[in-house]
């Protein structure tokens, strides 16, 4: 299949062992003739074979039949969860050998760049749904190591809704569109989801995360990732430590506003996909550090929570996150279907040095992932699909099945054998053979949940208490929105009861928005996770106050805010713009790593005061403020007059203000700001002051306009603006 033509990616996007491993499967038709799937050259691809020019099409037309048959079969079942996703290639490198805790080679050899393929996703929506749904984001990483594939199949939130995998189908049935009318798409704001949540107290902690701004990332490049479960590291001496995995984005963790998310969903449902693609195309390669929290086996019972409970984090104050390596995504896929759609992740893909724990959510996942690929990818040979192949050789006695690609030579496909000289041989541990950690087990077979899992509230409280005021307000708004979409009053009331166990003030504010009475303090939430013969009293949550009241790492307000790299800044300009006031600020922002786009009433270009032709990225028709992180209005008499009179431009600025973004104007363009709604509501005198409201800047280059603007953009958002009033935009 290989045609030895360089792919579009090759020029600027780096090669690695996995890219080379994909190479023989790349097809490129540039300069080639059209053929059937069997290599026959096609002479007429425009007309089917007919009985006469105006006659019926003949069954004999094998070219038509082949083409239509293939087309009819082009779709495969979408993933039941995480159907909507975007992928990228990259590399991972460990900073220092981690041999004291794990023998995994890729975490020890600092000279190795391990190829990775990452797929980010939403959970609830279909494959064609919007990127900006309020949802958890999948963060799945396939490491193609020298010891086989290791998949870290995580999310952008460190906990989960349920404690036992047997509840997963229920959770997903509840959140997916309702079965009678298949509504709503990619949204949890409906009866069945909140019905389920309101009687599953174990979900309280995860619900706080899902209602926070973490569910509305600004970019996949600006999200944390988490392995969620406690895993095991095992070193060469066989000593095991518990480990939690983290991904820390170097660009910081940032979110958009809910109003903005909804608007983006209409204007560009591919917003996150485009953002990731464009960043990689521009050479702005996204980076994350891999972090680990290590807990010695001896400390298994040291904490107030159970390490095996996936609804709990290990607060970073208790066990710091050590940053042990860096992942860089540096190459876009060549083909979405072949790579991003067909990639098959599995939490069960591990390498020597990494092992599982008995987390009951993880245990069920160990079954689910291979099973789902059998249906989705059509049979047991999905590991042979190029993107899923390891970069090391595969030898075993598995044979045949649908779409088998490998041509296994020889007579033996069994072990032990003598006819094939015993090959393939089992690998000794010293040769990299995997041996399971010999955890001691002495137990009865029971269907039960450990009592140590019954604290459902302490970490929900910890999360809420750790948020900044604007973040808390956003959680109140999110719950008011979601429960406002619920049509059954009893569900809303039950949820208020749950919220009252997390924070009285939170429950009170949501109750106010729903115009319901503030719930009385619940003794016990209703819990339907009780077996038929179980006594509900045995399943009571203990309403626990954890000893830690707040944790800095849980608030996005504490994320690094020192860079404007890759941020998108809109310049609103028209004919007659003062080229200097546009180009100097543009150069300063680009110098700091931002991406500047010039928007004008009409497409293509504008003519500056000095007759210079300046290219335009978008007209105001195809752009929108929600696609940008900040906006600037340069000077120039005619340009300023045109922008001031343009309703779309004024709407753009009002909306940017509403979404708390940095706004700047050249002193000569101050009348544009004066035409906005927010200026009318602000007492400041625009012509005198250089900083009017937080993040609204007016000035000239001589008084440091560009520098002040850069500092403001790095702040990401001025959420405090939401407090006094919302701008109607
Ligand atoms: Fe899952 C996909 C993450 C619990 C069953 N899961 C899937 C993906 C991610 C996660 C990121 C998309 C992978 C991709 O991009 O292809 N899942 C999680 C996390 C969980 C979790 C972080 C909890 C900590 N999942 C979970 C449970 C089950 C599943 C408890 C079932 C018992 N997940 C699946 C699945 C999917 C999947 C049905 C759908 C498509 C796929 O696997 O390949 O097997």
From TrEMBL:
Bias kind Basic and acidic residues: ranges: 1-15
Known cofactor(s): heme
Sorted UniProt keywords: Heme, Hydrogen peroxide, Iron, Metal-binding, Oxidoreductase, Peroxidase
Swiss-Prot/TrEMBL GO biological process terms: hydrogen peroxide catabolic process; response to oxidative stress
One GO CC annotation: cytosol
Active site location: 82, 155
Crosslinked residue numbers (3'-histidyl-3-tyrosine (His-Tyr)): 346-369
Enzyme class: oxidoreductase
Source taxon at top rank: Bacteria
Function: Decomposes hydrogen peroxide into water and oxygen; serves to protect cells from the toxic effects of hydrogen peroxide.
EC number per UniProt: 1.11.1.6
Pfam families noted in UniProt: Catalase, Catalase-rel, Catalase_C
Annotated catalysed reactions: 2 H2O2 = O2 + 2 H2O
Record-annotated Catalase core domain positions: 35-423
GO terms of molecular function: catalase activity; heme binding; metal ion binding
Record-given protein name: Catalase
Region of interest called Disordered, as start-end residue ranges on this chain: 1-20
Positions of heme binding: 79, 119, 168, 365, 369, 376
